[in-house]
Prior knowledge:
This protein is of the alpha+beta class. The chain has helices at 9-16, 31-43, 58-67, 89-98, 133-143, and strands spanning 21-27, 46-50, 79-84, 107-110, 114-117, 123-125.
Amino acid sequence: GFIDKISVVEEALAAVETGGVTAAHDVTEGGLSGALHELADASGVGFLVEEGRIPVARETELICRALSLDPLALIGSGSLLLAVKPEAVDAVLSAISGVGVRVSVVGRVTERGRLIRRRDGRVEELKRPLRDELWRVLERYEGEGK
Length: 146
């Protein structure tokens, strides 16, 4: 059923119409980790994201746990990463919620550093994925003839 949820056009348009969006990136290959790095590269900034605020579908959590995958480095089609002016956060959240899409503030832009605060409170560098987790698992099972 997730195939019907891969377009981000409606929520992107709603967010942009608020006037508060400064950057946007669809979360595709490389997942949220890759999208954060690409957005930071293009903007010349850093970030601090809060792992506990990142929405991950229960199905995704279960599959990733079973296959030892990092959900933050797994293709995220249907997700949209936005950088928003601090004074416009509430308006953007409201606009996206208004189109019936789950929305969350997952972190903030910083001058430098690409960090993640883990659920246990540890802050560490968020590594740039070398490749999407989907390809890693497909190669693993293809090599086993499954």
